[in-house]
Amino acid sequence: MEVTGDTADEIFPERKGIKSQVKKLNYDIIHFFVERAPEYYEDIINIYRNFPFDLVIADVAFTAIPFITSLMKIPVIGIGVFPLTEKSKDLAPAGLAITPAQSFVGRIKQKALHYLADEVLFKNSNKVMWKLMEKHGVDHNHLTLFDLLVKNSTILLQSGTQGFEYTRSDLGKNIRFIGPILPYSSGAKKAECFDSRLNQYKKMWYW
Predict the structure, then answer these.
(1) How far apart are CA 162 and CA 168, in angstroms?
(2) Which CATH class is domain 8-181?
(3) For the whole prediction, is pTM greater than 0.85?
(4) I want to staple 92 with a disulfide (CB 3.0 to 4.6 A). Which of 11, 18, 67, 98 is the partner?
């Protein structure tokens, strides 16, 4: 199933009637990603019959990753194309834009936010993913969806540098930071772009 932002309401017309943002987020995660996992896995199996590959390289949001590594025993290199989503005891849940807590009370708050994210916000998404994995005999260890994809990648090549991430004492051992993901370049030198109007100022500010 090919679902994009432009076709979502056409393929899933009931989505338009969902008013709650939390419910709509879970709906999108379940229908766009989670329920596609067995379909992706079936595609991979079909490809393997004609092309017995030794390695898979996939976007870390590719929900068939746990199926490939667990059932096919084939390594998967995940590519982290968005900020690292792996859960950490040192941080609040990913996506909340909350800086790491330094105080005891702050750490308790972070722990409470993790519980809220796991047991309320993404509870439905996690349950659907776990049921699909159980149906196919894949262990999930009650990891959340975002952790499942990171931790089931044999190696995760995370875009960016570790210095841009908050310090994590429990960073996964399978994670490697690889800097920016840049488009292909032929290596040919190009003329530098410089606007002569810049010479009329002593100081410049960029934003």
Answers:
(1) 10
(2) alpha beta
(3) no
(4) 98
